[in-house]
Structure formats: C-alpha cells, structure tokens
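input
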Amino acid sequence: MRNPLKFLQEVKQEAFKVTWPTGKETIQGTIMVVIMAVIASIFFLLLDQFYKFFLEIILNLGI
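output
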C-alpha cells in the first residue's frame, strides 16, 4: 500500500502542471457550445416537424 503523504505530494506536483485556459479560450469554447446547441435544437425541431407532418398524413388516410 502507498504512503498517503507521498500520494498527496504527488497530487500537489501534478496539480501544478495543470494549464488553465485563458479567458479568450473560455469565451471561444462557450460560444462554440452555444452555437452547436442552437444548431442541434433547430435540427431536431425540423426533424420533429417532418415526422409530425407525415404522421398526420398517415393518420388522416384512415378516416
């Protein structure tokens, strides 16, 4: 079993190696996520309307 104190020292050393994104990178990433969410929502809206249209046609044929 490992020494808990040594483990914590290694964790601290690895934490110092982490590079955080800059403010500009964070904003760019956020904008990309928002754009992709809007594109996905529009796609699924159109797909839903397409299925709704054809389902109504199929159901009205039975009348």
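quick obs: The CA atoms of residues 38 and 50 lie 18 Å apart.
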